[in-house]
Every structure is written in C-alpha cells, then in structure tokens.
Amino acid sequence: MEELDAEISSVRAEIENLRKRKRFLTSSLLSSEPIQTRLASAKQAAASSAVELDVSPLIETADAHVSVNHHRIAFSTTTFPFHDPSPHADDASLLGVRIDICRRTGHFTKPYYILLKREGNKKDTTNRVGKRNRDPPRLRVHRHTIPAFIPLDSLAEIYLPSQAAHHKSSREDSDEEELKPPQTRKQDLPAFVREIRRELVAWHLRLDAVEFLKEELAKHTESIPAESEGERIVSLAATALEARYIRLEWADGRVGRFKVSDSGRVERAVVIGDSGRDKALEYALTGGDARVESVLNRLLDTVVK
Amino acid sequence: MARGKTVRVPTAASLPNNLRIPSTTPILTKTLGRLSRQVLIDLVLEWLDDRNVQSFRPYLAQDEAEDRDDNDEASPYAAAKDIEEVRETYRELQDRKGGKREVVEQILDGDWRHGITLRQLAMVDLRYMEDHPASLRWTALELSRIVAEDGQDSSATRAADISACVPRIHAAMFLSNLQREVSSLVKAHYHLVRSKTLPLTFLRILVTDSPYQNSRSNPGTLVDSSRVLYVAFPDSCPYIYTSISSSTGPKANPRFATDTRTLQQIVRDAIPKALSQQQQRLTLKATSLTAKSLQALLALRGPGRSNAANGAFSIFADAALEGSPLDPRPSHTVTPEDFLQQQQQQQQETQKSNNQSSTENTVTTTRTNDFDDSSDSPAKKRRLAVHTRFGTAGMALSPLNAPLDRLDIRLLDPHHDTPATTPSSSHPTLSLTFSGADVIGGFRKLADLGILQPDRIPAWMTGEEAVSVAVVKGGRRVPKDG
Quick one: signal sequence residues (chain B) (predicted)? Predict the structure, then answer.
C-alpha cells in the first residue's frame, strides 16, 4: 500500500515537472524571434487588409515580457508601477525600482526592489498638478528589499531630502513660502538609485571574489612545497555577510584579515602570529597590483620564491 | 594538610569562568535536567574534548586521594583514573537506553562532584536555548548613531557615515568595554558563543549582585535563571536582540537598589556605550518588535531583504513576483509558489545536495495551473485577493516566514456611535491583543476561509508594518514619536 502511495506521489511529481517544462518551453517558443517577427508581419498584413487577426493573448504577453526582460538585462535598473493594496493608503500608486545583478556564475540574483511613494499631503497634490512641468513629484522610500548593511537611509537623506525636514529647517521664512518656491535641495532619484546599485554591485563583486578565492585555495595548497607546511592556508572566509573583511588562517596558527575596497583592491591587511605581526605577508597582501583576485598568487610567491 | 585561610578581597573583576558552584546545590539538578539525555551526553563529551578538558576538568582519582582526609563519606561513584575513562563512561551511557536522571547524577555526584563551573552552566543554558528557540521572548533594538545637537554635520563625518552604517563588533573588545562600564555596579559572568543554527552571536550575562554584597555565601543566586540575561548580535545589521523586555531609556532611580531588575537595567544601558567608539556614540532605540521566535526577529530586523518589505510587499522580499530576467515565462503565468520552489531548488543545487527525495517533498501535488485558467469562481477570486494583501507572509513555503506570537494593537479611532463633534469628551481607545503560534499566518487563514474580507483589512493585519506593538489611527500605524 505504501509502495503504491509512493509511486503515485512520484508520478504526480513527474507530471508536475513535465507540466512546468512544457510551460517553460511554450513561453520560450512564443517569445522567440521567428514567431514574433512573423506575428508582426501578419499584423501588418492584417492591418492593410482589414481582416480581424485572432492572436492568443499568450503571444501578446510573451512579446511584452521579452521586452521587459531585455530591458532588465541591458540596463540592470528598471522601473515599474505598483499598486499598494492597502485600503487605508493615502496614495496607492507607487513607483517601483528594480535592480538586477548578474553573479559570477551567470545567474541573476533575486532582484532588489525599492518602492517609492509620492510625498506630501492633499494641498501639495493640488499644487503639483498646477505646475507639474516645473516641479517633479517629491519621492520617499516606502518599502525596499535592500539589505540592512547598505546605507539606504543615509543615501536617501542625501539624494532624496524630504519636504518635512526642509520645513523644519526653514521655519523662519515661512511667510515667503507661498510666494517663491522653497529653497529645498533638489531630489535626485537617478543618483540615489545609482549609488544604491553601486553598493549592491560592489557587495556582490566582493562575494564573488570570496567564492573565487575559495576555489583557488585548493590549487594554492597543492603548490605549497611540503617543507613549508606552515604556510598552508587552512581557512579563508568573509568575516560577515557584507564581505568587506576576509579572514585567513594559516596552518601554523597565524591569522590575518584584509579589507576589500569597493573596486576590488586589498586596502589594508594585518597578519598576526605567535611572535607578533608578520610584515612580509602583510606587504604581500597589499603589494603588487593589490587586486583581491591575485592575493593567493602573491602569497605563494613569498613561499616559493 | 592545613591550608591557609582564604583571604577575600572585593574586586571589580568579573566572575571567573572557573568559579565552581557546589554540586550539592539543589537547583543544579533541575537546570541540567532541562536538557534531554542525548543533548546532555553530547555536552559532557564536548567538555571532555581535548581542547576543552583543561577548563572543565572532571573529578579524578588523584583528587580523591588529596581530599580523602577532609571528606570521609564515600560516594557511590568511583572516581575515574584518567580522562579517557570518564569519556568511556559517557560513551557507554550514550549507547545505552535509559532515563536522563542517571546522567545528571553521574555528572553531579560522580565526575563533577567538586562543582560545576559557571562556564559549564552557561553552556548548559545556551544549549537549552538552541534546542528550545521559543523559550525566551526577544526584543529587537536598533543601534543608532547619536548625532550632535547642533545637527551641523561636516561632509567628512557624512562620508564616514556612509561607509560604516553597521557598527563593527569585536567580541573581546566589546566584553572588556562592557566590563569596564558596569564593573563598579554589577558583578557578572559573561559567556559569548556563536549560534550553531542562526547567524547570531549570543552573549549570556549572569548578573549576580553588586560587588558590595557577598554573593558566594549563597550559591543559589549563581543558578537563578531570573538573573540571567541574553543579548544576541545578528550579523551585519544595526540591531541587537535582548531577552529583557523593559522599556528603553535610562530610568531615573531615586535610590540605590540592588534588585535584579535594576542590575539588569544597568547592564542593558551599558551595552550601547560598550559598542560605541570614539567619535561614534551609539544609543539603543526601540523598534516595537518583540517575539519568541528568533527567526522572526532575523526576518524583520535582520541583515536580509525583508526588513522593510512585509505583508503585501513580501512578494518583493521573496522575489516571488517575477523570475530572473532570463526566465521566458511571463510572470503572471507562474504562481508565487513556483518561484519559491524554484529558488529552493536552486539553493539545493548550489549546496550540491540534490537527492531525489527532497525535491519530491517540495512539489505540491494538489496545485494545478489554475493561474492560467480563466474561471471566475469566488474561491479563486478570494485566493487572489488574499495573495494581493498578504503576499507570501504566512505561507509555509516562504523562507522568510516570521511567526509573531503576540500582536498588541491600540486603536485611536473614535467609536462610531459617539459624535465626533464633542472635542471635550475623552477619546476612547481600544486595545487588541492577538496571541498564538503565528498571528499573521492566522489572519491569512481566516482570510482564506472568507471570515476576513481580504480587500478591507488594514495593513497591520497583513504583517506589513513588521511590528508586534502598534498604535493605529485610521487604519494606519502612528509613529511613536509623532
């Protein structure tokens, strides 16, 4: 009986997998270049001959989806509208910013999102409508999926200064506020998103570098001569999630750590053994071209030389 | 062998790791008995490990020879000759079935009859906590920078702000700072350990007494669990979690009191000071989140993606809205469950543990591709509405599941029957408390069953605010300081 159940569930799983595969292939096929070009030419022909063209909505959406995907791949940062479903939201339409980052393996990470909300109360809204061309709507970060160690709040303070903060600082000249435009700092959404993306990409590059070094470590340990067994690196790992510092541990008990800059250079390094600092290794870590990728080669040179 | 009488001098040092609590202290049996037999034996074998055995030396035959003249009563447990023999005893216990009582007795009356050290006790407590993640209530606090009063930041400090938004915590440095802060007022024992299962570092602080009182006369105070407080440091985020549930901010104590709460308060107030560095003073801010599950705290106030994207927005945190840009499937034809499963499978593949059974388990067998078909049945409409409001919150499959065990809401809205034209009358407020294993998950189920109307419930019911205590007006959360 149990065997039968197991068999049924495995067959079900198989069906589910095949169904998924079918859907995957269908969408690939529908969004492929030949189909879409033929569709476009058929549409043109239909338009000229005024014949109703019966196209499945699936094909239409496939086209739209492909173009979104192309934008996401090419520009890495894309925007989309989002509707806040809360019935109590004062302004339900949100501006979504989507950041796609490609990893070393060629996979894309989960997209990062920032959802921005228009700032201001009802009065401001009427104002804004009146002179829409001159004043772009002021935005503030409503929800986001940026990890906590990326300084989103401080960046938002710099590039998306809020109206409320301005009001507080310029309370004394409130009389003139109605007459002339307030002297607020301009919001710079592109710069804000650019900085956030820069931090995210730098983080992923650091993560990639740690992974790369871990792979290289196997080769490195092989090329260490047997007589200098103590020079073998036994562990290499990032000290924390943000992977700004990398910790090394040698077989003879020395430990070291170095800081990786946003551009992938070894900025600072310290190696401490039982007899104090190991300056030679520190120079090896930060010396040369100081690239993080070639750290192990430089260390190997100090051993073999 | 007449030993010189020990001279006791009051010191400001912390309680040493090797301070032994007499194994005859009755509460020790209870403390050790909280662990299961298997875990207890594991722990003992960890004590007897070559790296640790110096700190946790068991009672051996040579000790017995020294003690013979001042201790006449024979113990039923023969002292072991060397450490290997002790290890063998516990390995035997491990292979054999039996109650945990015999293990506890073997420890207290046998191999550690000379006393359990404070460090051993701390390890027992932490092991219990790891095995019972819901045994404590944790409060999340935010570490925030104290900005100078004038608010005139130079651009140099601004730049420093950006690069270091998360305070770096160096454990040994932090402990010595903390000790310096509290030593004149509090006598304590500190135990710092990395969690085995979660990205956290636990600090267990046993606050015994002020140094002006003699604690050694009563060893029971060293075992008293009400004197223990825990602080957990999650990786890479500006939050800490504590097991103390008192209000933030230093309370003015009119007179010097040495009850445990005050002492704990002193320690808690010292934590941000100990974490501060020069030119970078930190303070703790309340974040309105208290929960039993550390998993929930990590999801809502942790290093990950879901701190500021919950409830309806959890589809973004879980990336269940759309696939990678290389995915040819239009996103509305793929269920969020599929996206989550796909992510799980990718994770499994990267962990190189792609055994057949685990992939079979993640496949939901009942679900068909009903996102495609255009049936407008009310059940399906409701399911879509629930999904719109709750996102992936409260879904079992979601990796960011954050069960809140308690949700306190204070409603400031005026009651419908009272006319709003009388400003003199006091505003009646309504306090709601929900408790259960997973409050938000429960709301979702109610909405699934059609008891709650998914399109009309306020955002705090969907977990969007990510708090466990909130003041609500007009369906929206009112910030505390506003």
Answer: none
